[in-house]
Amino acid sequence: MTSAVPLKTVTVGLLGCGTVGQNVLHLLQRRQDIFSDIGVRIEVAGVLVRDADRARDVPAGTPLTDDPAFLQECGVVIEAMGGTQRPLALLHPYLKSGRPVITANKALLAECWRELREYALAGKLYYEASVMAGTPVIGPMSTVLRASRFESLQAVLNGTCNYILTQMEEGKEYAQALAEAQEMGYAEDPPTLDVGGFDTAHKLAVLARFCADGDFPYDQVKVQGIEGVTLQDVQDAAANGEKYKLIAELRPGPDGEGWEATVSPQRLPNTHPICSIGAGRNALVFRGEECGELYFAGGGAGGMVTASAMVGDLLDLVIGFPGHVPLH
Fold first, then answer.
1. Looking at CB atoms within 10 Å, which of 10, 35, 123, 245 has the fewest?
2. Does residue 77 lie in a domain region?
3. Closest Cα to residue 26, out of 307, 313, 255?
4. Same domain for 275 and 152?
């Protein structure tokens, strides 16, 4: 009779315990059996929050704290706090020690790439959830799609804008559709990051580093939001068999030199694959010389949708797959 093989303990630290962080904790608990099957036990060493006394929907016994000292004992950190400077200050010394980080923070990746790039190249950064949440696009771009010469991409990467424009198709003014999006929790208050196109620009910069240029700078993305789209614009488009979408686009520059990255509201034919998605969803059309046109669509936001990709990254990490490595 053989004895059971002891499980290897992986200590995890979580930064932030909002909607995404809470769902990460619940999903880690739900997936204990999957980790056990690969010989791993996940132990949450600490969860960094601003107010440790505030009530949260987390598993019983979750160690909430406002002191980041627990990071010193963690084998991996999952960052779900958002923003740029605060998480960078916390994560940089941790990454410098050679330990891995999982994040969904597209703003951090887009705006602080100079500080993070070497760790991504070393396979220490995992960030599948940063672009389309639980819909995998970074994984394919960083692996099998590299065999195909990239030509262009078009994408809807912000569910809030997609929801607003879809509601306008039903006859609602922009202000009314935005207010409803905020009531439903789709849009932040103020909603500038979403409706101004900056959230989409962050995500496009991340994608560009896999498709076009590993050093693609965020400030090279030209950004126009949907604030200027009127109900009349949307109705005129509908009369011509078209829909308005906030489109992230990456294509070759003039004369084939360099790359152009833009975020802007565009009119697309109703037959375009991007126009078939639902109100709050994301979609991406990737074109490569050898692979042809590929289509990705699915949930691009939401606590559990995002958590699913982050816990998926953790599974990859403990199995031994490296993080998401951009073009060199």
1. 123
2. yes
3. 307
4. yes
